[in-house]
């Protein structure tokens, strides 16, 4: 996966994208490792055990604490009966899995998302889990009695144990029914289905450990986690130009990793992932008009950049940095400059006869999808290196006068060259004394 991405991105993209991919793969494998644990936390509360008194034998086998397990047994039976009420089958609405870049670069946001999922899954099975813990408590009590001697377990206890074993199967089947209903309701909603996967994995593992058989076929991961649904979701995001999600390749690759763990063909089997890579291209155009005048002198100019392509890579501050590439679907780094055409150059000093091919050092661009903070760092314009001087025909002949260079340099803040681009990065206007500049940036 990393090699495939590396082949489609310039070198400056390799480290941040590789880091993102590795973090995504590690994240999904940690989730699977937890769900596929070889142990079950039954959280059973031990009932008190006491030796039988001599008087108890005169009345037949009876323990001083039998009322304790019987009381708990009666509560279990009452709870099992209450589950027969259709109103008790509360499913709620599963939370969506957050696939924006904000979740992956914000540790607290990621923690909150997983906590919401955990809270929902616990709420979904809280009644069944509470009753199961009570049943395990009684089982543990019976087992400890049996260690003291087989005769310690009465016929009443044995009968109760058989009923409780059936109750455990009933609770297990009830959770399965809940999952089946949820899967049926959200079968094509990838963001909700993916949040049910840990519960299904854990339930499947419990079936294996407790000898309860296999999950129904319609709960098999290769049935509910469908590559077509993921691909359709990606296509929808691309159509909506949802850069915060499509450019966050971490969730795409973590989903691909799940398909690999299931032994299924994922989204990389077709050309959908290539569409994601191709989607990561941006066309930059910069236009600038400037005029400087006084009572006797004036200078004005107009430039427009040639089309320049960029690719975006995520940064640690939840923004995307843009790096120039050679073309719309380039695999290499572009030039260190963007090229401009000098459309107008006029001055009271003379007639411009110089180079009309100009350049600017590649601008520094960062777009914030989470913080809303966008930044563009622009550098001064200059004639191209093949003819790096401005030539003007004046009354004194042909002279080298940096009139355009100074004009457009004054158009930007020379202290730090920072332009607040705003959400749309359009139509930034600066006015300094008698200088006017109209800067339009389209990305």
Task: Kindly list the characteristics that best describe this protein.
443 residues; alpha+beta; 2 domains; 15 helices
Question: What is the count of DSSP helices, taking H or I runs of 4+ residues?
Answer: 15
SSE string: HHHHHHHHHHHHHHEEEEEEEEEEEEHEEE
Number of domains: 2
Write down the Rg. 35 Å
Q: Which spans have pLDDT < 50 for at least 5 consecutive residues?
A: 5-15, 49-67, 328-334, 413-437
Biggest sheet: strands, sense, closure? 15 strands, antiparallel
Count of distinct strands: 15
Q: Give the averaged pLDDT, no decimals.
A: 75
> What is the beta-strand fraction?
15-25%
Shape summary: rod-shaped
Broad structural category: alpha+beta
Helix content: 40-55%
From the N-terminal CA to the C-terminal CA, the straight-line distance is 28 Å
Give the helices and strands, then pairings.
Blueprint: H1 2-6, H2 14-35, H3 54-58, H4 66-82, H5 101-105, H6 107-124, H7 126-148, H8 155-185, H9 190-210, H10 221-224, H11 227-239, H12 243-246, H13 249-262, H14 272-279, E1 282-293, E2 298-305, E3 308-314, E4 319-325, E5 337-347, E6 350-352, E7 357-361, E8 364-368, E9 375-377, E10 381-383, E11 391-394, E12 397-400, H15 403-410, E13 418-419, E14 428-432, E15 435-442
Antiparallel strand pairs: 1-2, 1-3, 1-15, 2-5, 3-4, 4-8, 5-6, 5-7, 6-11, 7-10, 8-9, 9-13, 11-12, 14-15
Helix pairs in contact: 2-9, 2-13, 4-7, 7-8, 8-9
Offer a quick outline of the entry.
The protein is α+β, with helices and mostly antiparallel strands and 443 residues long. Helices cover 45% and strands 20% of the residues. It has 15 helices and 15 strands.
């Amino acid at each position: 996966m990393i090699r495939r991405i590396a082949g489609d991105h310039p070198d400056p993209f390799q480290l941040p994208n590789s880091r993102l991919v590795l973090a995504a793969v590690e994240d999904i494998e940690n989730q699977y490792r937890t769900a596929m644990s070889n142990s079950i936390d039954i959280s059973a509360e031990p009932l008190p055990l006491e030796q039988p008194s001599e008087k108890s034998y005169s009345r037949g086998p009876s323990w001083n604490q039998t009322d304790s397990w019987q009381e708990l047994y009666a509560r279990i039976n009452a709870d099992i009966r209450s589950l027969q009420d259709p109103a008790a089958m509360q499913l709620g609405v599963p939370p969506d899995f957050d696939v924006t870049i904000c979740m992956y670069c914000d540790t607290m946001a990621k923690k909150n998302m997983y906590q919401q999922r955990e809270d929902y899954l616990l709420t979904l099975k809280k009644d069944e889990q509470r009753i199961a813990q009570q049943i395990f408590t009684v089982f543990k009590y019976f087992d400890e009695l049996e260690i003291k001697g087989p005769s310690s377990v009465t016929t009443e206890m044995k009968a109760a144990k058989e009923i409780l074993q059936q109750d455990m199967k009933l609770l297990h089947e009830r959770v399965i029914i809940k999952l089946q209903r949820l899967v049926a309701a959200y079968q094509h909603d990838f963001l909700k289905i993916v949040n049910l996967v840990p519960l299904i994995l854990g339930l499947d593992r419990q079936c294996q450990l407790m000898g309860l058989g296999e999950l129904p076929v319609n709960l098999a991961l290769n049935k509910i986690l469908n590559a077509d649904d993921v691909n359709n979701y990606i296509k929808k995001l691309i159509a909506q130009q949802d850069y915060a999600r499509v450019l966050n390749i971490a969730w795409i690759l973590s989903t691909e990793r799940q398909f690999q763990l299931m032994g299924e063909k994922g989204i990389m089997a077709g050309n959908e992932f290539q569409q994601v890579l191709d989607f990561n291209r941006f066309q930059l155009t910069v236009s600038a008009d400037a005029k400087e005048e006084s009572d006797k002198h004036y200078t004005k100019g107009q430039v427009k950049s040639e089309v320049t392509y960029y690719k975006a890579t995520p940064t640690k501050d939840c923004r995307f940095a843009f790096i120039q590439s050679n073309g719309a679907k380039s695999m290499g780094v572009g030039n260190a400059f963007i090229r401009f055409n000098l459309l107008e150059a006029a001055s009271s000093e003379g007639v411009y006869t110089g180079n009309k091919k100009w350049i600017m050092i590649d601008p520094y661009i960062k777009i914030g999808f989470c913080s809303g903070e966008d930044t563009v760092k622009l550098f001064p314009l200059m004639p191209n290196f093949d003819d790096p001087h401005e030539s003007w025909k004046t009354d004194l002949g042909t002279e080298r006068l940096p009139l355009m260079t100074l004009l457009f340099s004054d158009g930007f803040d020379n202290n730090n060259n920072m332009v607040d681009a705003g959400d749309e990065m359009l139509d930034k206007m600066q006015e300094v004394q008698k200088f006017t500049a109209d800067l339009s940036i389209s990305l």
